[in-house]
Amino acid sequence: MLYSEEIHILKFSISFIERTYRDRFEQILTKPRIRKKFRESLSHFQHFINSNMRKIPGSFQELDEIYKALISVRDVPNEVYIISESSKWDRKFLRLDEGINEIVSSGYSSIISILPGELAYYEGEGLGERYILSKLS
C-alpha cells in the first residue's frame, strides 16, 4: 500500500472539502455511523471546494477518455483508494484502471482518491455528473 486510508482521507479533506465541513468529513475514518451517513449522502454531496473541481465535458465522459485524462498527470500511482455509497467498493484499494472500470457508470456515487490531496475523481448520481478534482497546475 503506497498511501494509507488515513492519508487519503485527511489530504482529500484539506484540498477538496469546504473548511466548515472538514472535521465532519474526517470522522468517516473513525466513526462507522458517520461514514454510513456520508456514504448515503454522497450522491448529493454539496461540500466540495468548487474551484478545485473540473466537470468532465460530455464528449469526454467515456471510460477510456476519463482514464486517459487521469493518467496524463505526471507520476500518477497505480493504486487508488475508494469511498463509495456501494459497500462493495467502499474502503477498497484498487489499481487505477480497475477502480475507474468499476466506478464509472456503476450507478453508485463514489470518490476515487488517486494522489492524496492532489488528484481525485468524483462520480455523482446524475447523468454526466463526473468531475476531476485537482490541486495540480
UniProtKB/TrEMBL annotation:
Superkingdom of origin: Bacteria
Descriptive protein name: Uncharacterized protein
Organism: Leptospira johnsonii
